[in-house]
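Could you join me in thinking about how sequence relates to backbone shape in a protein? Would you write everything just below, so we can both look at the same thing?
***
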Amino acid sequence: MTAPPAIDADPRSWRRALADLRAGLRARELWALLAWQDIKQRYRRSSLGPLWITVGMAVTALALGVVNSALFGTSISTLLPSITTGLILWNFMNGCIVEGSETFIANEGMIKQLPAPVSVYALRTVWRQALYLAHNLVVYVVVLAIFFGKLSQPYRLVDKAGALLHPGLGWGMLLAVPALLLVLLNGAWVVLLFGVVSTRFRDIPPVIQSFITMLFYATPIMWSMDQVRAMNQASHEGFGSVAVNLLQLNPVYHFVEIVRAPLVGQQQSWTHWLVAGVVTVVGWTLALLVLRNYRARVAYWV
């Protein structure tokens, strides 16, 4: 008579945490369907349906582009593509942070009734934000079609080494594909980590919402690093250098740049890739640690 397979009785084990993650990935039909139903439910009975996502992004990007172009005297053909791509990426990251912190709280009913892996609910949130991202990318395609001629031309602005900061659009645009995949990968650990912690400590979501606006203004979305560099050259007090150094501490800035730079014809800096890679490793390590220790308690905390 063969012995039954050994079962890891300890809920706090790496084996169970990784098994939960693998089971969640295999249940892609479940979380993909739930995410799409979330979007359909949000725009139920509207004429355009999910296309309102694209329309809303287009109106916001156009308004910010026109206003900032008038305020700073920057060409709309230069500013609008940068603002558009920045807003698209910010909306995804903002959704993963804000909605991710409430992902298990919002799924309380399903968690108590449906015997599904915890990671399913995190993947549901990430996939919903990814669908929003896909809808918003349509706006970038339209902007690219309008300003392609301008974006394909190199700019004369150079860095200290004499390299063009804006070499123009080219095959380097393809770097945006692995960059987007890296952003999606980081969105998953953000939702897992913030979701579990916020389920235990209910004060975390309001704190996140309080600081998310500050993070938005500290990220070069409505303004550009070129403006900070110009300020650095014009200032005799080194304000621009201090601002640039402070920006390096903002991880969102690096993730925005690895995607936006190739999409708007800017020079791709491998420093951003290095920082993004380090954040990815550290973030997933923390998320897996939290999943290992507290995965089994989520159902009791909601």
User: Anything to note?
Assistant: Residues 189 and 282 are 10 Å apart (CA to CA). The two ends are 43 Å apart (CA to CA). DSSP finds 14 helices and no strands in the chain.
